[in-house]
Structures are given as C-alpha cells and as structure tokens.
C-alpha cells in the first residue's frame, strides 16, 4: 500500500466503542455466580450467554452494535455431553481400565482440535454486526496440525537438542562440564520455549484470521514465526532482572540462616533472624509476581499490536492496535489490587476496564460506508458432533 493510500485509509479510521460499565455488568455477573453455585455448575452455559451478550451489545463500530444470538439451552447439550465424557474418563483412570483410558486419549487427540474449531464456528454464526453474521471455516486436518501436531513436533525437537547438548557437555564428568551443560541446557530451554510459543502463536492466530469471514468477505493475514518468537523471547529476557533482584533479596538471609543452623545456633536466634528478614521475603515474592505480570503484559500487548497490524479484510479494510505496555501493566496491577481488596466483588469493574481499553485502542482503517457485506447462507450443524462442539463455546474467539 502506497503512502497516499495509507493516508486515505487512516483518514477513514474508526475505533470500537464500549459503552458498558462495571456498575452495569455487576447485576449480570452476580446473578451468574449465584445461580451457577446453586445449580452446581449446570447454569454455566446460560451464564456464559448472558455475560457475552452484555459485552457484545455494549460494543459498537461506526454506530452499529454487535449482537450474540446463542442460547444457554443450545450450549448446554454439548456442555453436558463433554462433562459426561470427562466423568467416564476419570472413572476409567480410577478403575485402572487401561483400554478404555487409551481409547479416550486417542479420541481426544484425534477429535478435540476439530471440536474446538466447530465450537468457534458456532460462536461466530451466532455473532452479528449490522445484521450480517460472522463465519469460521477451518479444515479438520489444518486444525489438528496447528493445535497439536506442529507444537508437539517443535517441543520434541527442542527437547532432543537440549538433551544432546547437555549430555555432550557433561560426558567428561567434571564439575565445569556439569556447570557448562546446565548453562547451555538453560539457554536452549529459554530459546526453545520462545520458539514453541512463537510457532504456536503465528500458526494459531493465522488459523483464526485466515478462516474468518464477515458475511461473505474474508479476512487475511500472514504472521511471521520469527517476529512472534522474538516477542516471546524479549518477554522472557525481561523477566531475568526481576529474578536476580528477588534472589538478591532472598539468598543472603537464607544462607545466613542455614549457617546458623549448621553451627548450632539456638532456635530463638534463628527465628529472630527470620522475623527480621520476613519483610524482605514478602517483597521478593511480590517482586517476582510483578515481574510475571510485566512480562505477560509485554508479550500480550506487543503480540496483539503486531497481529492487528498484519490483518486485513476484503474491501480494503485494515486493522490496528495501539495498546501500550506501560498502560496495560498499570491496568492489570490495579485490577488485581482492586479485586483482591474487595474479595472478588470488583471483578465486573476490572473486566469492563480492560475491555474498554482494548476496544478503544483497536482501530479499523478503510471506508466502511463503501462496504456492502452480504450474509452467508451457512447454518450451525445439528448433527451429534456439532452439538457436542457447542459445549466448547466457553472458549472465546479472541485476538
């Protein structure tokens, strides 16, 4: 796209608008929680539909609101079927029924990716914007390869390389060799984990976007495995300073306590020292926790911004995400503090805050008024497998 075309596209940029609030969502949420508890979980499908409808109906683009037309009853049948299969599996394991257990594991490996994609398809069939339904059309083989086959293959390759490197380093049996092997193994583990996450993210989100339709208009994207891997690697490297500072706060007093115990110090002296460093231990734990949240937020925001920048839809429509890591970190930390202080009662406000921030920083560039979307003619499947897949609608279609 040329600079002039890009400028024209940006001039027609519009953002999603979220008009919901914690106050508005709280009655929906508290009723969902209470009825789910009273019914021992049986109300969960209806709770899912009620919550999703609230957020969809309070989300709009260019003045048009989204709508969600699924019913709790339609999801309940599939959800109940999945619960029955889960109970059968647990019973098979508990009774040491090897053949039944193996059969269910094989069926899980073969069919769960397909069921997941069918569940996503049902969700999108039930989602409308301006009277036009969304659609999702992924092949079973493609879904299996992306969700299980490829990640497993990459994980095995990383494990083999890590094992070979560690064995080669420690074959001499020396202390230096063992230390070298440990360092090499750790580095391979870090890079390998980033590669696994990067491969999975690029292929999974590629599966979602390239099989997504709005009416008859297709979405498309080409996600780079290298770019996704670099994002995850940077997020893991970002965690290292937090680990070192936390260890610096924990290790010296722990070593001192161990030395006092080894040299026969009294229990009172040890407990006195432990009490004096108790604050440091708590601070180290909190720092470690904050480090996890910072790294998660970094990966989430950077990946989200990249994914949206590569997405497009037929009709000259482009997408952008302008979320900022620092703002999102503050949002997550303040939400956790708010929910913790209120013993969970502030969850609706936390959910609404995150939703509003992400939607307001999601932009659609292009002439939406020139689009003439036509609804597709496909209908949700009513065969037993499709009904079972509806139970997996608890997994949101999210980017």
Mean pLDDT: 87
In DSSP terms (H or I, runs of 4 or more residues), the helix count works out at 13
Helix content: 55-70%
Compute the number of strand runs.
10
The major β-sheet equals: 10 strands, antiparallel, barrel
Specify Rg, calculated over alpha carbons: 25 Å
Low-confidence stretches: none
Distance between the termini: 24 Å
Strand content: 5-15%
Shape: globular
Along the chain, the helix and strand elements come as HEHHEEHHEEHHEEHHHEEHHEH
- The side-by-side strand order for the widest beta sheet comes to 1-2-3-4-5-6-7-8-9-10
Walk me through this protein's architecture.
The two termini are 24 Å apart. The protein has a domain of 278 residues. The mean pLDDT is 87. A hairpin with a 2-residue loop joins β4 and β5. Helices cover 69% and strands 10% of the residues. It is an alpha+beta fold and 399 residues long. Strands 1-2-3-4-5-6-7-8-9-10 form a ten-stranded antiparallel β-barrel, surrounded by six helices. It is globular.
Helix-strand layout with pairing:
Layout: H1 3-11, E1 14-18, H2 22-38, H3 44-57, E2 59-61, E3 64-68, H4 72-94, H5 98-125, E4 127-129, E5 132-136, H6 140-170, H7 175-210, E6 212-214, E7 217-220, H8 225-262, H9 267-276, H10 278-309, E8 312-313, E9 317-321, H11 325-341, H12 347-360, E10 362-365, H13 384-389
Antiparallel strand pairs: 1-2, 1-10, 2-3, 3-4, 4-5, 5-6, 6-7, 7-8, 8-9, 9-10
Defining traits:
single chain; globular; 13 helices; ten-stranded antiparallel β-barrel; alpha+beta; 399 residues
């Amino acid at each position: 796209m040329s600079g002039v075309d890009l400028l024209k596209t940006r001039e027609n940029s519009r953002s999603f608008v979220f008009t919901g609030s914690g106050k508005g969502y709280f009655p929906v949420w508290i009723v969902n929680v209470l009825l789910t508890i009273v019914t021992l979980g049986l109300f969960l499908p209806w709770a899912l539909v009620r919550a999703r409808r609230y957020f969809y109906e309070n989300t709009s683009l260019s003045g048009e609101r989204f709508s969600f037309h699924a019913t709790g009853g339609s999801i309940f049948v599939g959800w109940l079927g999945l619960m029955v299969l889960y109970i059968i599996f647990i019973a098979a394991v508990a009774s040491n029924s090897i053949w039944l257990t193996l059969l269910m594991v094989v069926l899980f490996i073969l069919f769960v990716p397909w069921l997941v994609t069918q569940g996503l398809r049902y969700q999108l069939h039930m989602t409308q914007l301006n009277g036009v339904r969304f659609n999702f059309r992924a092949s079973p083989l493609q879904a299996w390869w992306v969700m299980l086959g490829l990640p497993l293959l990459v994980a095995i390759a990383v494990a083999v390389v890590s094992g070979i490197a560690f064995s080669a380093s420690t074959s001499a049996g020396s202390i230096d060799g063992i230390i070298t092997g440990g360092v090499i193994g750790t580095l391979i583990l870090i890079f390998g984990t980033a590669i696994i996450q990067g491969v999975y993210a690029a292929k999974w989100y590629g599966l979602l976007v390239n099989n997504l339709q709005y009416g008859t208009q297709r979405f498309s994207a080409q996600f780079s495995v290298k770019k996704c891997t670099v994002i995850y690697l940077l997020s893991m490297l970002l965690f290292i300073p937090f680990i070192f500072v936390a260890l610096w706060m924990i290790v010296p007093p722990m070593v001192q306590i161990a030395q006092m115990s080894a040299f026969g110090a009294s229990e009172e002296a040890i407990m006195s020292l432990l009490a004096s460093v108790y604050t440091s231990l708590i601070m180290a734990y909190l720092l470690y926790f904050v480090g996890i949240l910072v790294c998660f937020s970094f990966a989430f925001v950077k990946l989200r911004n990249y994914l949206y920048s590569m997405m497009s839809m037929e009709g000259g429509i482009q997408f952008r995400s302008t979320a900022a890591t620092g703002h999102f970190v503050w949002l997550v930390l303040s939400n956790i503090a708010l929910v913790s202080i209120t013993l969970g009662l502030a969850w609706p406000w936390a959910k609404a805050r995150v939703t509003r921030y992400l939607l307001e920083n999601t932009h659609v560039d292009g002439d939406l008024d020139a689009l003439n979307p036509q609804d597709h003619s496909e209908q949700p499947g009513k065969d037993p497998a499709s009904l079972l897949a509806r139970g997996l609608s608890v997994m949101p279609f999210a980017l």
